[in-house]
Design a protein that fits this description.
By secondary structure, this protein is α+β, with helices and mostly antiparallel strands. The chain has 2 domains: 48 residues; 142 residues, Roll (Nuclear Transport Factor 2, Chain: A), CATH 3.10.450. A hairpin with a 6-residue loop joins strand 3 and strand 4.
Length: 208
């Protein structure tokens, strides 16, 4: 009788261990399935489908932090292009400057007012000079906000007989805004902006 009881107790222990192993395996499998499902949901949520010219295109969404350097450089480049690209047309100059001032604070408006008061824009118009800008590089400090930058570019002042090249270096800070608008799609604002260097490099004579 004692032998039978020992056999029953041994069988019960085996069943108990088997049940615990089976339960643990179920928990592990269930956890893996749940994790996989949540991973798939996150991955599918980061995918965006865009209908373009009748074609369905897939785009992958990413956090703004990943694209921050690219967006900052584009914002800085766009501001300088709008501010310094000038044609001998008063309306074209006003339109470009107005767009650029949405991207910066009062320091840019002050620079514009100084140039306007000095007759810079009137001289461009009267002499039929076009001013274009080509960016060379942008130095950007991403360690803390507001983000300090230094912008390097070459200006071209194009006349009918010659082209004057100028070295342009500016610096400032970029602050992140809470909202993005049509006039400021990146949601950044350039502040404490100033021109460090704006000097002639050389003169290219254009053959008539």
């Amino acid at each position: 009788m004692f032998t039978q009881l020992k056999n029953i107790d041994r069988a019960f222990q085996h069943i108990k261990r088997f049940s615990m192993v089976f339960l643990l395996a179920c928990v592990l499998v269930t956890s893996a399935v749940v994790y996989y499902c949540f991973s798939m949901m996150r991955e599918s949520g980061s995918r965006v489908f865009i209908l373009y010219n009748g074609k369905l295109l897939e785009a992958i969404a990413s956090s703004r932090k990943q694209n921050l350097p690219v967006e900052l450089r584009d914002h800085i480049s766009t501001f300088h292009r709008l501010f310094f690209t000038l044609d001998p047309d008063e309306k074209a100059i006003s339109t470009g400057i107005a767009k650029s001032l949405y991207l910066a604070d009062g320091s840019a408006k002050k620079a514009y007012d100084n140039l306007k008061e000095s007759g810079y824009y009137n001289n461009l118009i009267s002499a039929n000079i076009s001013q274009h800008i080509e960016m060379d590089s942008i130095q950007l400090d991403l360690n803390h906000e507001p983000y300090v930058f230094r912008y390097y570019a070459t200006q071209k002042l194009i006349r009918s007989s010659s082209t004057v090249l100028r070295k342009l270096v500016t610096q400032g800070q970029v602050r992140v805004l809470e909202t993005q608008t049509d006039n400021n799609p990146h949601g950044f604002l350039i502040q404490k902006w100033e021109t460090l260097i704006n000097a002639d490099v050389n003169l290219k004579t254009v053959q008539p």
